[in-house]
Amino acid sequence: MELFKIGFLSFTIADLADILLFTFICYKLYAVVKDSRATTMFIGVAFVIMLGILADFLKLSIISWLVNALKTIFWLAFFVLFQPEIRRVLTHIGQNKLLRRFLQIRTQTIFDEITKAAFMLSEKRIGGLIVLQRNVGMKAVVESGIPIKSEVTPELIVTIFSPSSPLHDGAVVISNDQIVAAKCILPTTTKDIGSQFGTRHRAAVGLSEESDAIIVVVSEETGEVRLAYDGDLLKTEKDEDLNKKLEKLFKYEGKKEPEEEGA
Questions:
Q1: Residues of the chain below pLDDT 70
Q2: CA dist 229 → 17, 32, 76, 254 (Å)
Q3: Which of 163, 95, 166, 154 is nearest to 130 (CA)?
Q4: Contact assessment for residue 133 and residue 171, using Cβ atoms and an 8 Å cutoff
């Protein structure tokens, strides 16, 4: 279906969809690689492509030949030098909820990593506070800690909370599947949550009262793993239980489910 015409060129719905899809893909690619060493290369590739299009349009044969020669070298260098970033892009695509639902596949999620980390801490009797940011921003909390930009791995989380680590005090904040800060200070609750719970649990409940974040708390004394959410502490019996609760709470946008309340 033709939308309008410029001279002898007609602009159709297919052309509009093509432009919008291309723009969306470029935006998503840039969103994934921004703030990494691939950003400059991404901009460079985009510049070379645009220069090639312009040279072809203006019929600049020498520039077109040069750009075509450079494009081959540029793409080869891109794939060789930036394998980690490419893997990150492909992982980001593979973790898309609609794609996973359409293909009916289950990939390893960030909840698996957090669950493994929590029970590794529990086994070693190391206290931990892992904050999972949802919709409400926590700029003040993040800025109170030490900035980190890293993938979420159980080994890294355990290392951060190890007593010998300078970052072990405070909480780790995870946002958009990345550890964004460590040694963060959380607000403590003023309500009575029970004498068996210490400062770590009070801080977790305090943040859950002020935001929609989900906080995993590991007790240094007992090794018990609990979830702080909406002002309450939820019991977890084992790793599968914690994983299911995390998935359910992230899917559920309203109040917590009554059967999961508990101290």
A1: 1-9, 28-42, 71, 74-75, 77-79, 81-108, 252-263
A2: 42, 29, 48, 12
A3: 154
A4: no
Q: Are 55 and 64 in contact (CB under 8 A)?
A: yes
Rounded Cα–Cα distance for residues 213 and 173 (Å): 10
CB 179 within 8 A of CB 152: yes
Q: Which CATH superfamily is domain 110-257 in?
A: DNA integrity scanning protein, DisA, N-terminal domain (3.40.1700.10)
Read off the pLDDT of residues 208-229 as tens digits, 9 standing for 90 and up: 998 889 999 999 988 899 999 9
Distance, CA of 123 to CA of 139 (rounded, Å): 32
Q: How far is CA 6 from CA 19, 57, 186, in A?
A: 17, 16, 60
Beta strands in 27-105 (DSSP E): none
pTM, whole model, 2 decimals? Answer: 0.58
Q: Are 179 and 172 in contact (CB under 8 A)?
A: yes
**Residues 117-161 pLDDT 10s:** 999 999 999 999 999 998 888 889 999 999 988 888 999 999 999
Q: State the DSSP code for 188.
A: P
Q: What is the pLDDT of residue 128?
A: 93
Please check whether residue 201 is in contact with residue 217, taking contact to mean a CB–CB distance below 8 angstroms: yes
- Give 69-78's long-range contacts (Cβ < 8 A, gap of 24+): 74/44, 74/45, 74/48, 75/45, 77/41, 78/41, 78/45
Q: Structural domain boundaries of the chain?
A: 2-103, 110-257
How far apart (Å, rounded) are the C-alpha atoms in residues 27 and 14? 20
